[in-house]
Structure formats: C-alpha cells, structure tokens
Specification:
Elements (H helix, E strand, L loop, with lengths): L1 H17 L3 H18 L4 H11 L5 H24 L5 H7 E3 L3 H8 L4 E6 L19 E6 L5 H11 L5 E4 L3 H10 L4 E6 L12 E4 L2 E4 L3 H9 L3 E10 L2 E10 L9 H16 L15 H4 L1
Parallel strand pairs: 1-9, 2-5, 2-8, 3-4, 3-5
Antiparallel strand pairs: 6-7, 8-9
Length: 296
C-alpha cells in the first residue's frame, strides 16, 4: 500500500512540473544544479575519481570545469525526463532527431525482423523511447534493471513506455527476445551497454578511457545466438534540449564475426562518443568498481 501511495505522490509531483514549458524547466534545472552539486554533493567523489582516471592529461582546473559542465547537464537530464510526463511525441522527436532511421528499415527488409541497438548513458537516453514511429511497423523494447525503490521504478517504466515502447527486465532478456524472433516481431531492442557487468560476468576486458574495463558481453552473446544485427547509436548534444542521433552498423550477421569483436567495436564507438564531449556521459556511475585482478 505504501508503495502505491508513494508512487501516486511522486507521479503527481512529476506531472505537475511536466506542465511547465521547457524554458521554465531549465530554470528549475539551474536551481537543481546548485542543490545537487553545491549543496548535496551527489556522488561528486565518484564523478571526480572517474574523470581524473579517464583524463590523466587534464589539469585540475580543466577537470573541475568538466565536472561542473557534467552536473549542469545531469540537472538538464532530470528535468527533460520529467517532461516526458507531458510532451508530445512530435516534440520529443524534434528534440531527439534520428538522422538515419532507414538503416533499421533496410535491415528488416533484408529479412532481419529484430535488431539489437547498443547505446550508452550519454545525452538523454530516456528520450529515445519516443522513437517508435520512425521505424516502419516496428516496436521498441528497452532492457532495464528494476530499481530497488518500487515507486521510482514504476515511475520510470511509466515514462519510458509513455509513447508505446516496451520494457524487458534484465533477467527476462534472452527468453523475451527469443520469443520476439520466434513470432517474427519487427522490433528494435535497446541495450544500455555501458553498464558495469555483475561480478559473475566479468568475461571481457579492454582499455576504455585509459582504464582496464570490463564490458558487457550479453548483447553480443544474444546477437550471435539468434543472429540478430547489431547497431550502435551515436548521440550528439547540439544545444540545451536538442540531440541528434546517428546509427552505425556494427554487425549484420553476428555469427560470422570473431569472438568479442562486437563487444570491442561497441567499446571503441562508445569511447569515441564520450571523448567528443565528455560532459554528457554519466560520470556518477560506479563504472570501475571491479578490477581485472579480481576476476583472475
């Protein structure tokens, strides 16, 4: 009962703020920046440690500037996500524009009804759930890890599926994708593949942002098992509240690729996106909590 009450209050708060126009929401973002970064100091130690290790060549002054830019963007991400509760799909697609949706359509026309799309916590990944109409008769599915707080988890599911996309729980991924392929469902399955693998799944390591890094291999294993094309989503933030997205084919026939080739190619593409402008990646994530020697 308490979870239902908590969700109702949380959703009412979000819905109320979502009624505000974007300019006012960005005023709220500026206030949030002060609260999150200056007062609460939300995971500042984590972000600072990640930035320092990823950019050893930068001076302290440069790192602090990058840190501040990240927290400004993080505050924007929060209000932009809130806006999902009251924004038209047309407006989201205008602000998060996919430049080449035809890539997915072409793969499907070749006989691949299901495509795996790999992306990262870059820009505003929540807005991309609104992209359903850009693909011909295709559904969008997002793999997600349920949050511990049930009310917050329910809220994010509500926001992410608002425009007709679907969620797949992490533990149900293989079963559900097998069923989608069996049913020949035209679909794009999105993986946020820059997350830290669980301790039991530290199977592949590579140099990523100057650090020995474990990379998720689950998407590649699924792609190979079901022979599903893999596409990378490159994101650029053009200005406040506006993003462009471009898809790049990683592998059309994964079964023909060498082991870990897809995983490595994703790591390189993701790293390239981050290095273009590091401020828009999620630096508060504990990305390097495991060390390579722990796996040995």
């Amino acid at each position: 009962m308490w979870n239902k009450i908590q969700y109702a209050l949380l959703y009412a708060w979000v819905k109320t703020h979502a009624l505000l126009p974007m300019p006012l929401l960005y005023v709220l973002s500026d206030i949030l920046y002060v609260i999150i970064y200056r007062i609460v100091r939300y995971r500042v130690a984590v972000a600072r440690r990640n930035l320092s290790a990823s950019f050893p060549e930068k001076s302290t002054k440069e790192l602090r500037l990058l840190e501040r830019r990240f927290y400004h963007h993080f505050s924007d991400y929060i209000v932009e996500t809130i806006k999902l509760a009251h924004i038209s799909q047309k407006e989201v697609l205008r602000r998060a524009h996919v430049e080449n949706p035809e890539l997915v359509d072409q793969l499907m026309e070749k006989g691949h009804p299901c495509v795996i799309l790999l992306m990262g916590h870059y820009g505003n990944w929540e807005w991309y759930s609104a992209s359903t109409p850009i693909f011909k008769d295709a559904r969008i599915y997002q793999i997600y890890r349920p949050l511990k707080n049930l009310a917050v988890d329910r809220l994010f599911i509500q926001l992410r599926t608002h425009f007709g996309s679907f969620g797949i729980k992490k533990n149900d991924t293989i079963r559900d994708i097998i069923q989608l392929k069996k049913d020949k469902t035209r679909c794009v399955v999105i993986f946020l593949a820059d997350q830290t693998p669980s301790k039991a799944n530290l199977h592949y390591w590579t140099d990523f942002l100057h650090q020995d890094t474990a990379i998720l291999t689950g998407p590649e294993r699924i792609a190979k098992k079901l022979d599903l094309p893999v596409v990378f989503l490159d994101v650029r933030k053009k200005k406040r509240g506006f993003y462009t997205l471009r898809m790049e084919l990683i592998a059309e026939n994964p079964r023909t690729t060498p082991e870990n080739d897809i995983t490595e190619r994703y790591a390189r593409l993701m790293e390239k996106s981050i290095l273009r402008d590091p401020a828009y990646w999620l630096w508060t994530h504990k990305r390097w909590k495991y060390k390579h020697e722990q796996e040995q």
